[in-house]
Each structure stands twice: as structure tokens, then as C-alpha cells.
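In the previous chapter we treated chains in isolation. Here, by contrast, the input contains two separate entities that must be folded as one system, with a combined length of 581 residues.
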Amino acid sequence: MGDILALVEHRRGEIRDATYEVMTLGRKLAGETDSRLTAVLLGSGTDSLVASLKPHAHRILVADNPAFKDFNNETYRVALADIIGREQPLLTLIGHTAYGIELTAALGTLLDVPFTTDCVGIDMAGGKPVAVRQVYDGKLSQRVSFREGPSYLVSLRAGATAAEDGSADAEVVALEAPALPEAAHLKFIDYIEAVTGDVDIAKADIVVSVGRGIKEQKNISIVEEFAEAVGGVVACSRPVADAEWLPKDRLVGSSGKTIKPKLYIAIGISGSFQHLTGMKNADTIIAINKDPEAPIFNEADYGIVDDLFKVLPVLKNTISEIRQ
Amino acid sequence: MNIIVLMKRVPQTAEAEVRVDSSGKNIDREHLTFDTNEFDTYALEEAVLFKEKYGGTITALSVGPPDSQDTLRVALAKGADNAIRVKAEEFGDLDGYKTAQLLYAAMKDIPYDIIFAGTMATDDSYYQVGVVLAGLLGIPHSTLVSRIEAEGGKADIHKEVEGGLQEHLEITLPALIAVQTGINVPRYASLIAIRKAAKKEIQTVGQDGVGGVDLKMNTEVEELYIPPVTKHAEIFEGSPEEVSARMAGVLKEKGLI
């Protein structure tokens, strides 16, 4: 039986957290199928990356080439197709990240192997993977089976499974130069740094965060007044930043900031997975939302299921009186 | 510039009660409202902005049941010139891969310089369709695109990665661009435009229009279910005054206010 392969994702010389999650699952599946976990590292100047990977995999395939310095879905796709062709793995695991999103389905299409994406769990049954995915805004889960294939390809949602320390001591194998694209249609130019504003929400003890439920730009002031009353700063979820009702540096979630305040108050936020990733480690979480099934209530400690426009003014006054 | 935009009509589940139907594999569609997938409204707007800037035509393309024509009519009202619906009702179960193959079959005679899509759809959350379609067409792609400017057969793009960071990339056209929400501010269609669009033809493509394309699914749904809850907030009940008093009490006790 072939190995379990795990793609190593790195950026600016650091291995991304999603890679440790993928390798943790990969080790478990390798144990269950009596195979090895082989990490595949495409990079440039890879020595320190290899050192951090060693405990986490049984084997590391390394291709060191300036072409692999920064992620590029075209370069990675061609090289990985070559490597998978040579290795004939049972299963290849990729993190469902900003990189994995555009790599996994493209690689599966190129190789014509059965694949699926954005999974939150993977088991092996009868030599084939069975995957669990979250659908319909995270309100339902689905279990999916695969068509028969010589090899399978699955991406695992970043942050959906826990990363554990490994105790392996990987054999390091330098890969003979993998294939590269014949012509470049996609070029990495540079990074554009995250915008910074007057307030760093990551440094605040109390964060009052507002989502789609606020409905209109003019209502943002209600939340600002509430935040002032509790002594917190205002943050938001994706729809509010997209609409430019608050600046991008106030965005909490995987595409914005990951914060750990003492108190996080989510107002009119349903709690997409991407948002939860950014705030679930807050000490105390409060949610106010009119939808009792909103996923935010599965992460919050205390909740109020009601119209935020009715509750917020009263809660503001109650808290103001206590704080005086 | 010839532009294709991929669109999908999806149930609006973010604030709705969702249930599984009697098959145990599909969502119960009754009592749900349907609208254009949010990401696709940004893809359409970007297509219209491109048409305004560079000229050309827009073809809106959707794989879906008959009511998907509502989404396509909105596209026509906002600036699309043509609309095509692939009749999902003739093709059985779909995953992201099969959906992309259907799109590939439906667009093979349409010239294009750029294809806009949403990065994902909120119903089945595959993030696959645009990426697979680019692979089938043999053109480059990028996802989570938050800015794009085209010039001289190339486009300069910004791609969102984690933590607010973006990557500046250059992509050769033709290309498939899967957009991130917030890339623009989608316009509303005027009532006059909606009335005009109601009279326009929406072409359909069925079984006889997809000859020669290998339609296969990668995955099949075995079970759809409400995920078990491992943790749930303590919910305060009562009037706004009552819940506020309890919430403030908890915050005070914890020394947070």
C-alpha cells in the first residue's frame, strides 16, 4: 500500500500551522493503514524547515529550488503531479488554506484522481478515504465517499483539527528535480502587508464585534456607543469589512486578525468557520443573535437570542450603571 | 474583452432553520429562500466593471434547476449580454467536479478572455468549480482575488492570504479569476433594467448539448446530518431588561466590567 503524503505549506521561511494539523492526521491515517507519513517540501533554502519537520513525519521528500521559494499554484501543481506519479501514494493531504484552495482541485483535475476539498475529518474504510465536510453555512455536515481511484487527494480545513507533537525522526530524501511548468502563466511579485490603523484590536482586553446583523452602516454607531460603555474596542466580521462600514484592520477571522481578548462580545455575527478561527480562544465569549441555530452559540459561553436592536441599548445602560 | 461569469443560486441558510430531507442526503428545500451565491454577486460586479472599462460582452453561466433563471435575469439586468442555464435537472447528483465539467461543455463554443467566478458557494462549500474549470480549459487561475487590473494580455492581481496579508501576482490572460467578497461594491439593478431583462432569452443546455464530455463525480454524499453539538452557550432568557441584568451580573462577577 502507498504512503500517506502531506504537502508542507510555508510562507516567508515559516511552516504554516495548517501543515502540522495535516501531518497529525496523516500520522494517524498512516498508523491505521500500516504505511508511512511522507511530508513533501517544495522550497528554497529548506534546511531550517526540514529541521522543524523531522519529528512530524516518517519521511521527508525535499525539492530545493529557487522556483519553489514562494507558493505558486502553477509551479506546485506541475511539480506535485510529477512527485505523486513517482510515489504512487494511497492518499495525499493538503491544507485547505489560501494556497490549498487553488491547488488541490487543480492537482486532482490534472492527475484525474478522485479528490474533495475543505474536509473537517478523514477516515479510512476498506483502503479508501471517507471524508466529513461542513455545508450550508456550517449548519449541516456531510459524509462523502469517493469513486475508485489509484490514489486519492483531500484538503483539510485549516483549524478544524488539532495539531499534536510528533515523535518520529524522519528520513530526509532529496528529490530528483521535479518537473516545472514549460511556460509561466502565473508569477509571484511580492507581498502586500496588512493595513494597520489607529487601534490594534489584538491588544485590547475587551472586543465588541459586529456582523451582518447590524444591517446598515448608520447602525454601526450603536455598537460604537456600546463598546465605549463596556470599555472595549470595536471589531467586525467579514460582511461589515467588505461593505467598508469598518476598516479592514478591524476584521476578526482567518482573513483578518486572530485575537485572544479577555472578553469578546459578538453582535449579529452568525459565526462562520473563518470568523470562529479568529476569536475562539478568547477567555469569555458572549453572543447576541436572533437566530438560535447560529454556529456562534456553539463557541460562546453566554448567549442572548433576541433582536440586537432591542437588547443592546438596555444592556448598554445596565453596564454603564454598574461601571459608574 | 469577452467575459464569462459563473453564477449559482443557493438556499439562504445563514439565518434560517435548516433540516435534512427524507432521503437523508439532501437539504429540505421547503421553507428556505433562494438567492444568488454571495461570492457570485461580486464576480458579476467585477465582470460588469470590466465591460465598462474595456468593452466587450458578458455571458452569465449557471448550472442549476429552473429557478436559477432568476439569478441569470438579475445578471442580465445588471449588465450581462447573454445568459445560459445548464439544466441541472437532467444530470442527477452533482459534485464540484461534475459541475465544472458541465460548465466546460456548455462554454466550449463561447470565446473568452477572462472568466470570473466566486471563490466558493455557501451551500456545498467545495471551493472547486472555478479551479477545476480552469484545469479543464488549460488556463491559469487564482482564487481569493481582492483586486484585478488587466493590461496587454496580462492582469495584475492581489490575492488574499491569511492574516490580512495579500500577494501581488501577475497572471496571463485568458485566465479564471475566482474573487473574494469585498473586491467591489455590487450594484443594485434598476427596476427598468429588471423589466427589460425579464423579456430576454435565457438559453438552456441539456443532455444533448454536452456530448463528448466525460461526466463523472469524484464523491458521493452518503449522509447529510446536523452535526452533534459538543458545547453550547448558556442562553439567558427573558425580556431585554432581564437578560441584560443577568449578562451584566456575569460580567461583573468575572471582573470584566
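Residues 67 and 84 of chain A are 19 Å apart (CA to CA). The mean pLDDT of chain A is 97. Compare these points with the single-chain example from earlier in the chapter.
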